[in-house]
RNA helicase
Amino acid sequence: MERKRKVCLFNTVVSSSAKMSKSGGSGGATTKDNAVVSSVINPSTGMPYSQSYYEILEKRKTLPVWQQKDEFLKALKANQCIILVGETGSGKTTQIPQFVLESVNAETPDGKRMMIACMQPRRVAAMSVSRRVAEEMDVRIGEEVGYTIRFEDCSSASKTLLKYLTDGMLLREAMADPLLERYKVIILDEAHERTLATDVLFGLLKKVLRNRPDLKLVVMSATLEAEKFQGYFSGAHCMKVPGRLHTVEILYSEEPEKNYVEATI
Ligand SMILES: Nc1ncnc2c1ncn2[C@@H]1O[C@H](COP(=O)(O)OP(=O)(O)OP(=O)(O)O)[C@@H](O)[C@H]1O
Ligand SMILES: [Mg+2]
């Protein structure tokens, strides 16, 4: 006799309430209207945005950091240092550097090139995240968006505006350029992963911030003890980004299960 199985111990259902407007970031184009889409030009490349740009944009807009985009940009304008604590998957690594780039571009319309560095403690993350961001921005990796890891520099001295790089590489750049003058904003991601290089960088950046009032620093993490960092970078503004909420349905099994994971599926 077949044993009756009540399957799900818990079901997660992503809320469909995050229905997106189909408008593009900068032009109000719709995915349905190809004529309008093609008329919207990507400022980075001077080419029309591709269809996949709009598809990814819709997904990006559902990420929790988008809810606080304006708040973040206001805080970035008003403060030299921001501590951003956001739950995992909220969009810190992929979205925040793009928000920063947008704001820096808007502030320097005269075309003065200012770069943004996003430090990643792991080289694989620097590579894969920069590829994803290049895809999201509809540009080629190594051009407007690039990465630098040990033994591999996938960036362009004349084109790259947003660079993902490892802590070691940022430290190396700081040796040659102690005030990190090519950068307008430095983002330290995964700040809780305290490596020797990141600790030295924290000390170094504290000094650089004093000497370069125009430089901004964003410290990000999912599990950061924000107060400690706030105390270290005295006067830093702290921002919290909540995670995504999922509807959870609880069902009980009528009989004990041998393998609860299997039964759940
Ligand atoms: N390579 C990728 N391909 C497809 N989607 C991706 C990719 N990288 C990230 N994403 C999407 O972007 C979302 C945000 O990712 P992101 O890495 O920015 O989050 P995060 O806040 O930095 O998380 P964490 O605290 O784990 O580092 C992910 O939940 C995922 O949906
Ligand atoms: Mg991240």
